[in-house]
Amino acid sequence: MERIPIIRMSKFLLVSIQVDMHDRLALALQEDLTAKINETNARGVLIDISSLELVDSFIGRIIGTIASMARVLDAETVVVGMQPAVAITLVELGMSLPGVRTALTVERGMQILERAIGPTVTEGTDAGPEE
Amino acid sequence: MPVLKSDTVPIRSDADVVAVRQIVRVWSIEAKFGLVDQTKIITAASELARNTLEYGGGGHMFIELVEEGVRKGVRLTFEDQGPGIADVEQALRDGYTSGKGMGLGLGGSKRLTNEFAIHSVVGVGTRVTVTKWK
Ligand SMILES: Nc1ncnc2c1ncn2[C@@H]1O[C@H](COP(=O)(O)OP(=O)(O)OP(=O)(O)O)[C@@H](O)[C@H]1O
Ligand SMILES: [Mg+2]
């Protein structure tokens, strides 16, 4: 079966969903991401859905599950690039994506992740007061 | 109400649910729907197709391009010969699920379309019809 690729970038995992996912593909992504967070000790997950033309209750549930599994494994999740038509539809459908942070662009999403994990010892940065 | 064209799409696997979304997109573009309305009816179709598959044990979608005066619309009928729904009112309620869903599919598709009708007979099957107008 085809899989959605997961890219590792230092402490983060990046996923860009480019296809209209059938349900099993979405479930496979959920499993793969959880395994990869565990394996790489990733601190953040960024999911780019800018090419997704819809988020229905199933995809919404998958995104929510990814975020809560990530949290258990001490990683933050940010969903970026949701199209306005998709966002409007999601609200009318009645889905709220609880616990999922969203950002308009990949850059903003990365900033949210960087800020969420804070300065790390390995980078040798001063653990000064936050903002 | 004049029907300009119609087609039937089988719903037997989750790949068929994707095919349902695709044909509904193409036909709603043909009906000159804007992007938001396209997204709404495709999302409703995705929910109803998944219900047909998950709870109805499979079935089909009948799709029609309809016209009333100057406006065009897309009408979708989902049919299965599954177990049926004993309490339709309860099934329509947001948050009610007999499985592990979120119970948003039926109520959500009603909100996302202009006309919604459900007919279900226990032991015989379920038919859900939605219409969206431009
Ligand atoms: N075609 C059908 N045949 C039999 N039962 C159905 C059918 N469609 C829906 N139902 C029943 O109605 C309930 C509510 O459906 P609805 O789509 O609103 O929520 P769900 O499928 O449980 O969750 P979600 O759609 O949010 O993933 C279902 O749990 C199921 O019990
Ligand atoms: Mg459903």
Chain-wise SSE layout:
The complex is a heterodimer of chains A (131) and B (134).
Chain A: E1 6-9, E2 12-16, H1 23-40, E3 44-48, H2 57-72, E4 76-80, H3 84-93, E5 101-103, H4 106-117
Helix pairs in contact in A: 1-2
Chain B: E1 3-11, H1 14-30, H2 35-54, E2 59-68, E3 71-80, H3 88-92, H4 105-112, E4 115-121, E5 125-133
Antiparallel strand pairs in B: 1-2, 2-3, 3-5, 4-5
Bound molecules: adenosine-5'-triphosphate (ATP) and magnesium ion.
Residues 47, 50-51, 101, 105 of chain B line the site of magnesium ion.
H/E element string of chain A? EEHEHEHEH
Strand order of the largest sheet of chain A: 1-2-3-4-5
Oligomeric assembly = heterodimer
How many individual domains of chain B?
1
CATH superfamily of chain A: STAS domain
| Spans of at least 5 consecutive residues with low confidence of chain B | none
In short, what is this structure?
Chain A has 131 residues and is α/β, with parallel strands linked by helices. In chain A, 43% of the residues lie in helices and 17% in strands.
Structure characterization notes:
- The complex is a heterodimer of chains A (131) and B (134).
- Chain A is built from four helices and five strands, in the order E-E-H-E-H-E-H-E-H.
- Chain A is of the alpha/beta class and 131 residues long.
- Chain A has a single domain (6-123), classed as STAS domain (Transcription Regulator spoIIAA, 2-Layer Sandwich).
- Chain A has a five-stranded mixed beta sheet with strand order 1-2-3-4-5, sandwiched between helices.
- In chain A, helix 1 links the parallel strand 2 (12-16) and strand 3.
- Chain A starts with 5 loop residues before the first strand and ends in a 14-residue tail after the last helix.
- Chain B has 134 residues and is α+β, with helices and mostly antiparallel strands.
- Helix content of chain B is 37%, strand content 34%.
- Chain B has helices spanning 14-30, 35-54, 88-92, 105-112, and strands at 3-11, 59-68, 71-80, 115-121, 125-133.
- Chain B is globular and about 40 Å long.
- Chains A and B meet through helix 2 and helix 3 of A and helix 1, helix 2 and helix 4 of B.
- The complex binds adenosine-5'-triphosphate and magnesium ion.
